[in-house]
């Protein structure tokens, strides 16, 4: 149909394998290093944190990794997710561009995060793990792991960045409804948290701090493992069901993207959409423009340094080579809490270094402008994180109008904003501020990057 809006796949077409871009990249990612010895990690070094199957996925080089049938069975509750042609938004913009979005807000947790939460819970259960610890910013990841833990009978403890914990009580309630425990971070429950609170009793927290607390508890108990919602290779791997489905759906539409767009905090939803298309390109297929969109107040890709750094503030995690603002950098508070992370996924960072993607930073109010316009045309109220991708997509569509050129634009609508309505209330009341980061603090954090001679 010429005027089709939704492109839907049958459940039988849920991907049977995850796609690993490492197999197609012209250069391999730098190895993760032990935080104490600064030498490349071996599988045994990661066993206190992750089950062996996830460790093997973290270092995998094969192009396809089979999705276990129990994971695909649970995926059926919301996958394949719809691909939608944003025809009303196109009309409102008066653009010749064709705008599509892959909508991940149809999952039970309301975002793409459930794609990896289910996989991680499955592998941990298989390994005999009894409980998981994790961190969460806006709460989408914490909600997803809470749901996944319930599916497999695992206890889940979530350290939620304090700024978001206070802003989003309904996300906390959602986690608790699914059986998880939600704790504001920094907390007095860990050495890392106590040290931070001793220095700053009113600390608003950051993802790096929450990671430190979750990791600390995990390594103290053999029956507990740590789960991460973004950044690591195996997490990005699990998200590639998004792009693989989108390839099939665009084939149904008789179309192919010229531009791919995703918001970037740790990089997982961007990679999930974009990597399968970049894989096609790297194997001789059509070239695409890929754009990562981040907050101007936490500009990891646009201002960060490509260097080895810790993934957490307490320096408990391995060192990985990534775009980073420095592990001690604390971004200002803003509503897109899922994007308030000092580092970027090593694979996304490498993709940018290889010139396979570009990145842009956007202000908070500009993103909410776009989010409201999207809601008033397409009907979906987007999460604050997802508004960054919408802002970029609208800008590209307007550029097409100015140039009189029709391009196909695909973006990932990574989640809905039903638990973020206070942010929209603040926006309509004129209370949202475009907060800038402290450049002196950024330079100080970058000056403290660890010295690494290996790799």
UniProtKB/TrEMBL annotation:
Which is one Gene Ontology cellular component term of this protein?
cytoplasm
Q: Which cofactor does it need?
A: pyridoxal 5'-phosphate
Under the heading SUPFAM superfamilies, the entry gives: Tryptophan synthase beta subunit-like PLP-dependent enzymes
Q: Per UniProt, which keywords does this protein have? A: Amino-acid biosynthesis, Aromatic amino acid biosynthesis, Lyase, Pyridoxal phosphate, Tryptophan biosynthesis
Record-listed N6-(pyridoxal phosphate)lysine modification sites: 113
Q: Which residues form the Tryptophan synthase beta chain-like PALP domain?
A: 76-415
| InterPro entries in the record | Trp_synth_b-like, Trp_synth_beta/beta-like, TrpB-like_PALP, TrpB-like_PALP_sf
- According to its UniProt record, this protein's enzyme class is lyase
Q: Does the keyword section mention tRNA-binding?
A: no
State its Enzyme Commission number(s): 4.2.1.20
Give the pathway: Amino-acid biosynthesis; L-tryptophan biosynthesis; L-tryptophan from chorismate: step 5/5
Matching entries from Gene3D superfamilies are given as: 3.40.50.1100
Note the superkingdom of the native organism: Bacteria
Q: Which reaction does it catalyse?
A: (1S,2R)-1-C-(indol-3-yl)glycerol 3-phosphate + L-serine = D-glyceraldehyde 3-phosphate + L-tryptophan + H2O
**One Gene Ontology term of the molecular function aspect:** tryptophan synthase activity
Record bears the keyword Amino-acid biosynthesis: yes
Q: What does this protein do?
A: The beta subunit is responsible for the synthesis of L-tryptophan from indole and L-serine.
Q: Which HAMAP family match?
A: Trp_synth_beta
Assembly and binders:
Tetramer of two alpha and two beta chains.
Instruction: Give the family, as the similarity comment puts it.
Output: Belongs to the TrpB family.
> What protein am I looking at?
Tryptophan synthase beta chain
